[in-house]
Amino acid sequence: MGFFEESNNNSQGASHGSPRSGNGLAIASIVIGVGSLLLLWMKLILILLSILFIIANVAGIFMAVSARRRNESEGRSSGLATIGLIVNIISLSIYSLGFVACTACTACVISWF
């Protein structure tokens, strides 16, 4: 047996190299939430990008809730989906507050002229 070949001696029949099935939505939710939190600190994000990230965070929340429901119905752990849900809620809150603040500030400045 070569170095990269898998051993079939495991008693549960699961392969060592394959990722857990069913965590795709949870991982996608985490990636969206963390990615938007990281991009939050970039100073060149315009209002249009903020709207895009708000929409992405809402999609991430729906993915996390869907993954949690599916994992709970199948009796699996929903830890990754919970993390994705929390990260997306935090990111959505920050982006929403920033969007409202930027919009209010812009409206205030425009009203001066």
Ordered list of secondary-structure elements with their pairings:
Blueprint: H1 24-40, H2 47-73, H3 79-112
Helix pairs in contact: 1-2, 1-3, 2-3
Structural class: mainly alpha
The radius of gyration computed from the alpha-carbon positions, rounded to a whole number of angstroms, is: 20 Å
Shape: elongated
Number of beta-strand segments:
0
What's the helix-strand series?
Answer: HHH
Mean pLDDT: 77
- Which residue ranges are poorly predicted, with pLDDT under 50 across at least 5 consecutive positions? none
Main pleated-sheet profile: none
Beta strand %: under 5%
Counted by DSSP, the helix tally is 3
Distance between the termini: 78 Å
How many domains? The number is: 1
How helix-rich are the residues, as a percent range?
55-70%
Give the structure's gist in a few sentences.
This protein is mainly alpha-helical and 113 residues long.
Key terms for this structure?
113 residues, 3 helices
Describe the structure.
The chain is mostly helical and 113 residues long. It has one domain (24-112). The protein has three helices and no strands. The protein starts with 23 loop residues before the first helix and ends with a helix.
